[in-house]
Amino acid sequence: MATLSRRALVAPAVLGLAAAPLAARAQASYPTRTVTIVVPFAAGGPTDTVARLIAEAMSRDLGQTVVVENVGGAGGTLGAARVAQARPDGYTLLLHHIGMATIPTLYRRLPYDPINGFETIGLITAVPMTLVARKDFPANTLQEAIAVIRRERDKLNYANAGIGAASHLCGLLLMSKVDAPMTTVPFRGTGPAMQELLSGRVDLMCDQTTNTTEQIRAGEIKVFAVTTRERVPSLPNVPTAAEAGLPDLEVTIWHGLYAPRGTPRPVIERLSRALQAALKDPKVVQRFADLGTTPVPEEQATPEFHRQFWMAEIARWRPLIQAAGQYAD
Ligand code: MLT
């Protein structure tokens, strides 16, 4: 008994001593295998588009394959939970958007800690949104669309990616500004929602330019406004919501990269450097510009800036959500 317990006490101490340099070596050579970026929405949508561009560019800098895995559902909380609960070794990351700032208040019961479950790596980009409709929607301007929304109200279907999604947030803003509820139809992401809009099975959606630009340019959907203060250079003919007579419908969707809490600092720093390199990659810069967005400056693609920004965003959204009392649970 005594011998056993002495062994039990001694063994971890010896292992601990041996493990420390091993862990340091593992961190110094990181990454030695494929890195997975979890996207908490369906494939083919705006978060997925950003993630695939970033993953490809980061893999060039890291010298290892970086793959994207879509874990959609429950407004982005399923994918976030998957990463919060993953091993903190730098091989499972999360690329998420503004939902990281609204979910901690919107959801009061989650199977993971939506704030302390993560390390920040860096911000990526902020994407404008567009208010779009099926091609045969009976309106051509924002004012005409508002009149139809007020007249038809809950007979109209508004597609979103669940509570906490950017499309949900923009829809809430829109409905409160025009004072008319619509029936919301949640999808695992606005990739699949876009397919329903294209086929005319849903009426309206507010979605990021990273998922709407090509369909707008091809004339496959109608667009009424962009949600930014200035017009978006890649869609120069689309008015801002304020120009079209709806001031305050202003929202841009920031994105960031996260790792599970406890990921070693040297690994976070390596990932942050790879992210900064990816944001300067000419292919990323060009494709972002085509889709209406730009990479953040290098100093914002850092763990410190990202955390500060994220905390400020949580504080900005909390009173608004609490005042609206519109919780997911
Ligand atoms: C959203 O509405 O949050 C996004 O469009 C989600 C997605 O990437 O599908």
From TrEMBL:
Domain of life: Bacteria
Classification via InterPro entries: BUG, Bug_dom1, TAT_signal
Gene3D superfamilies referenced in this protein's UniProt entry, alphabetically: Bordetella uptake gene, domain 1, Periplasmic binding protein-like II
Keywords assigned by UniProt, alphabetized: Signal
Pfam families membership: TctC
Coiled-coil residues: none
Extent of the signal sequence: 1-26
Similarity section: Belongs to the UPF0065 (bug) family.
Name of the protein: Tripartite tricarboxylate transporter substrate binding protein BugD
Organism listed in the record: Caldovatus aquaticus
